[in-house]
Design goal:
This protein has 6 helices and 13 strands. The protein has 263 residues and is an alpha/beta fold. The strands form 3 sheets. The chain has a 9-stranded mixed beta sheet, with helices on both faces.
Amino acid sequence: MRVLVTNDDGIDSPGLTTLAVMASDAGHDVVVAAPARESSGASASLLGAEQDGRLIVAPKSSPGLPEGITSFAVRAAPGLIAFVAAYGGFGPKPDLVLSGVNRGANTGHAVLHSGTVGAALSGATHGIPGLAVSMAYHEPRHWETAAAIARPVLDWLVAQGPDQARVLNLNVPDLPADQIRGLRKAPLASFGAVQARIHELEHGHLQLTYSDVEITREPDTDAGLLARGWATVTQLRAPCFDADADLPESGRQAAAEAVAATS
């Protein structure tokens, strides 16, 4: 299976190498393509630096990446990297997108803003399953734990086949592997790892202040379980519509009347 390994922390992050080596050891054909600079918070955006209409791509390896694994630094957000990969931009279309290992947890509804998760969701819109992996510390020390927990999750995802283009979000405590309590399926918390307060200043400026969120309110969610030493896995869905929603509809005449009424 061909696996695209990407992230939002950039090509120089050791977490990128962690996933690439894990996927290679699992027997997959790995290609690394990651942002040339940090792109945290990029979600699934298609932002990228172009030069004369061309996306800027340069061969570059992440730290400690073994020889034989093709690797690129791309001046683009991870969502665009997965998008380009789906169209053969880094060789044959990948069969799976592996994103991370991210510095810091990606939990709760704040996964909407995560570039790590965004890359996996971007691939899913092109029929490519994805696994996003994050560690619950801003400067992880136990990268090998993330690899150990991610390997069976990756194996499970591969065994499901590509039909449903599943996206899994895996969060791992930054602990030695023998101190992890286990892996739990978990729903998203109703909040993220941080919250913001906005203060209006003079001259049209707004100031944002970030602070950690008290996670004990939802102990059985991904954020709550993670804080208690569990690794958590959550299945996400790429954008989809709700077929059961009772939405307003109208014909041409009704629309014309509505326009006339506002004129």
